[in-house]
Design goal:
The chain is of the alpha/beta class and 406 residues long. It has helices spanning 3-6, 58-61, 64-76, 91-100, 113-144, 149-158, 177-183, 189-211, 235-252, 272-289, 302-306, 312-333, 337-346, 351-358, 362-376, 383-404; strands spanning 16-19, 30-33, 51-55, 81-85, 104-107, 167-174, 215-220, 223-229, 258-262, 294-296. Strands 1-5-4-3-2 form a five-stranded mixed β-sheet, with helices on both faces. Strands 7-8-6-9-10 form a five-stranded mixed β-sheet.
Amino acid sequence: MNCWDILKIKGLEEIVLAGGKSGMDRNIRWIYFADALGTDRKIGNWISGGEIVVFANGEILSDREKTKKMMKSAFDMNAACIMIDEEYMHKDFAAYADELGFPLFILPLSVRAVDLSQTICTHIINEHTESSTLERILNAILFTGYDSEGRIISNAAYYGLDLRRKCSVSVFSPVNLSEYLETKNISDRETIDKIKNSYYRIVKNAFSNLCGRKLMSMLLQDNVIVLHDTEELSKDKYQRLFADIWRGISFSFPSLEFCVGVGNGYDSVSELKKSYREAVKTVKLCPAVNEGGLLFFRDLGIYSLLFSIDDEKSLQRYYKAYLGKLMEYDELNNTELCRTLDVYLSKNQNANLTAEALYIHRNTLRYRLDKIKSLLDDNLENLSSAANYMIAFKIRNYLSSLKADD
């Protein structure tokens, strides 16, 4: 549930958004009535993030500057939004909400506090129950198995997902979670779980905003798994989705990076496990082959062929036959000839683009290329020869992704 849902809930139609529209995607976890704060006003002692904070106490709201400080404190504590009794609403509060990007709602006198609390809490509980049910369905489809495909399709349809249409699985994986936790000096399990659940909600909210409720999702270890209607998400939409998620995670967890792997679409429930395996393989490769962080299995090219080869030793012999001399030279002399050749080939042997990508001078690049050609005894001008080296790099990247998963 996010702030947009407040405006859609039956029985709360009279609640009006006054400001902070840019923050309406913020997630709602519970509701807190701040009337009891009295003169304390240290709202940070009473919330932990995700709350609707309700102000209806004239003693608090009569002091506009202190009210704005409390709004800022709630915003800093990652509360979902603020509600202020219409009797005490002031244009300064709305303007400040716009400045923060923090949703501010006007609570009309016609909506009783008990009705507001009961309605919001019931909605949250129902959504949580529905989410748990969808997680169980997704777990059955991908991992534990099910006794009837028809029953799975029927259960999913009840929650708005048509598994008779082409569906696919995406895996969202934080790339540097361990390093992030170490940098932030976070080691307790409760805080780590809160971080994971937070970026899980960011992913779910982004999907819901873009394609409604047509998805199932779950948090598995560090990764978020989403099953969605393939036809609902074109590549352009997926790029927008990725950008929304990136903004949300960057706001909440600066320096936490992530990759997304998207499996192929299938119109059979039994084949969705295949889409999941494709997504997992793709997200593992993503850091090595795609700087953008979003990668589709159907775009993997030769990597999709490598996935079907079980003989890793033969693959290792292949890439070492082409790159072994450069790798040994780099290791002995602390140079970057392998990376230089990899970038040079990926830039279609364009010297200007290669030098720019490597942040080096053209003369430095020329020296490196001369050294590479000498070590390989190959001028790299032959198209077939260049293709062999490109394949060798792809095999090395592929094997590195397998090793990273061990």
